[in-house]
Design brief:
Helix content of chain B: 25-40%
Largest interface: A-C, 43 and 45 residues
Radius of gyration of chain C: 24 Å
Number of strands of chain B: 20
CATH class of one domain in chain C: Mainly Alpha
CATH topology of one domain in chain C: MetI-like fold
CATH topology of the largest domain in chain B: Rossmann fold
CATH architecture of one domain in chain C: Orthogonal Bundle
CATH class of the largest domain in chain B: Alpha Beta
Oligomer: heterotrimer
Number of helices of chain B: 17
Structural class of chain C: mainly alpha
Number of strands of chain C: 0
CATH superfamily of one domain in chain C: MetI-like
Order of helices and strands of chain C: HHHHHHHHH
Strand content of chain B: 15-25%
Shape of chain B: globular
Shape of chain C: elongated
Chains: A mainly alpha, B alpha/beta, C mainly alpha
Largest sheet of chain C: none
Distance between the termini of chain B: 39 Å
Chain lengths: 331, 525, 286
């Protein structure tokens, strides 16, 4: 027979949890560190002369070359260059964009708003539609909602963002002339209006993943014994579904990292398709132009953001599943 | 009117009727047991009485509970009005019948809210939850716990409290103790009996375990393939069965054997040269000590039983002997040769294992013949001996062409035994090998094992949680508790004169003895 | 003696159901696509021949059912010829990733130990990278190229295959039939490849199909962004990028390749789902 856990035992439980979290964070930092090394070495591994690449279109006069060597510490040993670069990154000095001739940090700051707005809009749209759709499909598995949702999910997963984007552009912006064709508009509500089509494009792919996740998770929960038990006790069906959803939240949140990786790629594609001045197009243009500093900084930034969100997802998982709180995070 | 009346209960599936029309009546405060093996239709019957049949099944007939009469074919809305307050279902596995992410108090509270038709104010609900917990003899703080923090027995009590919270008149308990340890089983059933009497409930108890049902239920229906083959007062039916199937079930059930008699004690072999001698075996998993100084001797041709509940370490011990796990300390000597931990130091001709779950013991992608041929190849025996192996375990030679998916559980277990016999091992380890089988099949496998020992001279290490089964074939019995050996001796000794109190508990459970007084005294012949 | 209680009964088989119309349609789409892949180059060897004089003809023009782009290339010819480029690469990626997944995943899952730790950390690292991002950056920095992209995508896709195979192998390794194989002292290789792998094969095969669909999407996305396929090769993703400017003059030039990508990828997904369901019935208790 269990008694309420003595206070000492409770405290040790929290301590071991804290330890586990710390280990997780360290692991993430390690991964980021390795990634930063890889990203840094891009500059040196790129074909062609570094200095030429960094000069871009400017004439290769001795003064220019010297200035470049100075600016990028090219005379220092490689590991020192790396540390200086990393140090710069951590203090906010992300280098200079060759193409735009402005500090990278400024270029990013200018565009981050649009990208964030797009992602947020797409995410909210996707969740608001996909989760209820997934739940409904699970509850009436085999019904026509289920089959329709399934077909849409297949298309959503299979359709490359840009293809969907172009098709939507054609239908809604050109043919039906409801939405504007390109650009981000002039701020505020106009921008929002411009973001609708891109957000829908992204939401289709996002939503497909979420619908499949939710449906699979809900079906599994609805087949469990505790649901039968609850129904047998006369608990109303709507509450039973809420109980099941609460249990299903665990696998859904863990699967949410799939959403993240999709979002990154999708954003680049969506912004390019709709010519939005966001981080995606910045990356795209910088890659084509070989604007290394921008590419490096953006990539590392994205990696950091993904890592942070993954950690938050782990934390959420911890909060959602009381069994884990006692035993520790699964490997 | 009170009590329950069932008229023409039928369940129809894809391929036709799964349960043929049943009539029954239960007076308030009385318990009806429905006995049957897998495939008898007992679970379908239970589910049809709460309107929770799985997809593809349809029920017919009516049931009257108290003043209400309900058509078993009614739509869900009609059932929802009745579930909880009139009839409820208690499921088998307490590990899955409660939501893992909600607190126990809340789960009981849901039923209270549903019965009241509204969300009860917190203070009132807490008070009522505490009352329900007290009724099942649980302290109030359990309300704040999550299911995984409680033991199996406690969880089942919470499940009972949750089921009863709406004050139903009929409770259907589907194998409510099968997933629990032997020591808990009696307690739970007695609790159910106490609660039932206090509330004048009607109870339908579904089970496969005759011993459990004896003395604890008033009437019984014996089902087979959807038919009721016998019915009557439990005491009468079990003492004097009329139908051959009932008779066969009683004979096969290890707990029903008249005057539980240990198997004939074979002359104790020469103690100086045991086939297997294990001493001081220790094993840790993390900081949990699973085995602590376990010792065991097995003489050639002897059947040694090892009994223990879940968590006692019996399976780990068997696996250490087999080399599938490596012990941390201790020695295992086989036929005079000390064995280092792990498979490397062992050969297939020394020992083989038959596992518990027949459904995952055979490679689903290989035919029976291929599985056995591979085992024969290891022993350097010709592939033509497949038929002989199958015959030894009582299966026809044509089975070599079949795949495991086409065989029943008992048949698969026989194939597993055949595979284990192929290298002609001197020791056969049976790790809960019959626990997952129906009682009748279980009896056949036990008979097979004894015959193999007599004909082949093979020694058997027989592991089980159920002393009732072990006593049917073991020569010696060793009792494990929390990783330690608490008792060891010949079967007769341990059963008639247990020295340790835990052993006494197991012996009582094996005899399915009641811990609470009952209306009719159990027959003891 | 106990009554002979159905000693030799066998459980009844479940009825087989024919595949639904959608799945049959998906098969048809794939068959047509396969035909285009094999014969496209033969049918339209000079799909990329430019003819400025017939530039920008709309769909339905005589001799050009889908019109032409601004350089006078026939859209229909380009599309058919472009099937090969659009589909061969992704299939190679999926197969390559599967091979890596089987080899590394089986060893990691069965042997455990330091090999498992190394492989697991490696997959964790790669999985933290968004595929498209990494592909864009690496391709862009090092210059693109079709087969370079194929190799790159194999490397980027393999971690998920490795993980899936490893998880499957871990699950099977705990099962009694594998322990029975160990009791028979069978060699590691025999256990891994004769016993475990066939039981993981369902998982692997379904994943291969899904990977073809994802690789198709990734490949065409990369082509769209200008990395991957060099200009001048017929390719659906490339077509979309090249013809974006003329979308409003000859919409077919953009719509047709776009729809085709979606159609083929969906078809692969559907067939993969169906195959997965069917395969998981084999070897299951009825």
């Amino acid at each position: 027979m269990t008694q309420p856990l003595p206070v000492r035992a409770r405290a040790s439980r929290y301590r071991s949890l804290g330890r586990l979290l710390a280990v997780r964070v360290l692991g993430v930092l390690a991964v980021l560190l390795v990634l930063s090394v890889v990203i840094f070495s891009l500059m040196h591994l790129a074909p062609g002369d570094i200095v030429k690449n960094l000069l871009g279109n400017r004439p290769a006069s001795p003064e220019a070359v010297a200035a470049i060597r100075e600016q990028y510490h090219l005379d220092d040993p490689v590991w020192l260059q790396y540390l200086k670069w990393l140090g710069g990154f951590l203090t906010g000095d992300l280098g200079q964009s060759i193409r735009l001739q402005v500090p990278v940090a400024d270029a990013i700051a200018q565009r981050v708003g649009i990208t964030l707005a797009l992602c947020a809009l797409a995410f909210i749209l996707a969740l608001a539609v996909a989760v209820p759709l997934g739940v409904h499909s699970a509850v009436r598995a085999g019904g026509w909602t289920d089959r329709t949702a399934n077909s849409l999910a297949v298309v959503g997963l299979s359709a490359p963002t840009f293809a969907v984007g172009l098709l939507l552009l054609y239908v809604f912006a050109y043919y039906l002339r409801i939405f504007p064709v390109y650009g981000a508009g002039s701020g505020g509500l106009d921008t929002l209006w411009h973001l609708v089509l891109p957000a829908v494009t992204l939401a289709l792919g996002l939503g497909a993943i979420v619908v499949k996740l939710t449906r699979t998770a809900m079906i599994r929960e609805l087949e469990s014994d505790y649901v039968t038990s609850a129904r047998a006790r006369g608990i109303p069906e709507s509450q039973v579904q809420r109980i099941a959803l609460r249990n299903a939240a665990i696998p859904i949140v863990t699967g949410a990292s799939l959403v993240l990786t999709f979002l990154v790629g999708g954003t680049v594609l969506a912004e390019t398709t709709y010519a939005l001045p966001g981080l995606g197009t910045l990356l795209q243009d910088s890659v084509l132009f070989k604007d290394i500093a921008v590419v490096q900084s953006l990539t590392l930034l994205v990696a950091v953001v993904i890592a942070v969100i993954a950690l938050l997802a782990d934390l959420a998982y911890l909060l959602l599943d009381p069994r884990i709180r006692r035993g520790g995070l699964p490997a | 009117m009170s009590g329950v009346e069932i008229a023409g209960l039928t369940v129809i599936g894809h391929d036709g009727p799964m349960v043929k029309p049943i009539d029954a009546a239960i007076a308030p405060g009385r318990t009806l047991a429905i006995i049957g093996e897998s495939g008898s239709g007992k679970t379908l019957t239970a589910k049809s009485l709460v309107g929770l049949l799985p997809r593809g099944f349809r029920a017919e007939g009516t049931v009257r509970i108290g003043e209400r009469t309900l058509d078993l074919d009614a739509a869900q809305p009609a059932w929802r009005a009745v579930r909880g307050g009139t009839v409820t279902l208690l499921l088998q596995d307490p590990f899955t019948s409660l939501s893992p992410v909600h607190r126990c108090g809340d789960q009981i509270g849901w039923t209270l809210d549903a019965a009241a038709g509204r969300r009860l104010p917190r203070a009132e609900r807490d008070r009522m939850v505490a009352e329900r917990l007290a009724e099942v003899k649980l302290p109030e703080h359990v309300a704040r716990s999550f299911p995984h923090q409680l033991s199996g027995g406690m969880r089942q009590r919470v499940a009972i409290a949750a089921a009863l919270a709406a004050d139903p008149q009929l409770i259907i308990a589907d194998e409510p103790t099968t997933a629990l340890d032997a020591s808990n089983q009696a307690e739970i059933l007695d609790l159910l009996r106490t609660v039932q009497r206090a509330r004048s409930l009607c109870v339908i108890l579904i089970s496969h375990d005759l011993g459990m049902v004896r003395g604890r239920t008033d009437d019984v229906l014996v089902m087979r393939h959807g038919d009721v083959v016998e019915r009557g007062a439990t005491a009468t039916v079990l003492a004097d069965p009329q139908h051959p199937y009932t008779r066969a079930l009683i004979e096969a059930d290890p707990t029903m054997t008249i005057s539980p008699q240990p198997a004939a004690v074979s002359a104790p072999r020469d103690e100086a040269s045991p086939l297997l001698r294990a001493t001081g075996v220790d094993k840790h998993f993390g900081d949990r000590q699973v085995l602590d100084g376990v010792a065991l001797d097995i003489a050639p041709g002897q059947i040694a039983g090892v009994v223990g509940e879940s968590g006692s370490g019996k399976s780990t011990f068997a696996r250490c002997i087999a080399g599938l796990e490596s012990e941390d300390a201790g020695s295992i000597v086989f036929d005079g040769v000390p064995l280092a931990p792990g498979r490397r130091s062992r050969t297939p001709e020394q020992m083989q294992i038959v596992f518990q779950d027949p459904y995952s013991s055979l490679n689903p992608m290989m035919s029976i013949g291929a599985i056995l041929r591979e085992a024969l190849r290891v022993a350097q025996r010709p592939a033509t001996e497949v038929a002989e192996l199958l015959e030894t375990v009582g299966l026809p030679a044509e089975f070599a062409r079949k795949r495991p998916a086409e065989l029943s559980g008992g048949q698969r277990q026989r194939v597993a035994i055949a595979r284990a016999l192929a290298p002609r091992p001197r020791l056969l380890i049976c790790d809960e090998s019959v626990s997952a089988l129906d009682v009748s099949v279980q009896a056949q496998i036990l008979a097979l094992l004894m015959r193999l020992r007599d004909e082949l001279g093979i020694a058997i290490l027989f592991i089980s949680h159920d002393l009732a089964v072990v006593r049917m074939l073991a020569d010696t019995v060793t009792v494990l508790w929390n990783g330690r050996v608490v008792e060891t001796g010949t079967c007769a000794q341990v059963l008639t004169e247990p020295r340790h109190e835990y052993t006494a508990l197991l012996v009582a459970a094996a005899n399915r003895e009641n811990t609470a007084p009952t209306l009719d005294s159990p027959k003891k012949d | 003696m106990t009554a002979a209680i159905d000693l030799l009964s066998t459980p009844t088989r479940r009825r087989r159901r024919r595949p639904s119309a959608t799945v049959i349609f998906a098969f048809a789409v794939l068959a047509v696509a396969a035909f285009a892949v094999v014969f496209g180059g033969v049918l339209y060897p000079d799909a990329m021949r430019q003819d400025i004089l017939s530039g920008l003809l709309p769909a339905g023009s005589p001799g050009h059912p889908l019109g032409t782009d601004e350089l006078g290339r026939d859209v229909w010819a380009m599309t058919v010829a472009g099937a090969a480029s659009a589909l061969i690469g992704p299939v190679c990626v999926a197969v390559g990733s599967m091979i890596l997944g089987i080899v590394l995943g089986t060893h990691a899952g069965y042997e455990r130990g330091w090999l498992d730790v190394v492989i697991s950390r490696w997959t964790d690292l790669l999985l933290a990278l968004p595929v498209l991002l990494a592909a864009i950056v690496v391709s862009g920095v090092f210059g693109g190229g079709y087969w370079v992209t194929v190799v790159l995508l194999i490397l980027l896709f393999s971690p998920s295959d490795i993980r899936i195979v490893r998880a499957g192998v871990l699950e099977q390794s705990a099962r009694p039939y594998i322990e029975a194989a160990r009791m028979l002292s069978l060699s590691r290789w025999r256990v891994m490849f004769r016993h475990i792998l066939p039981n993981v094969s369902t998982l692997v095969l379904t994943n291969v199909m899904l990977n073809v669909a994802f690789a198709l999407v990734a490949f065409s996305s990369l082509s769209f962004l200008g990395v991957g396929v060099p200009p001048g090769t017929p390719d659906w993703g490339r077509q979309l990028t090249d013809n974006r400017a003329i979308m409003f003059d000859n919409p077919a030039a953009v719509i047709v390749p776009a729809v085709l990508i979606i159609l083929v990828a969906s078809a692969v997904n559907l067939v993969g789902d169906w195959a997965g369901q069917r395969l998981s019935q084999v070897g299951k208790a009825l």
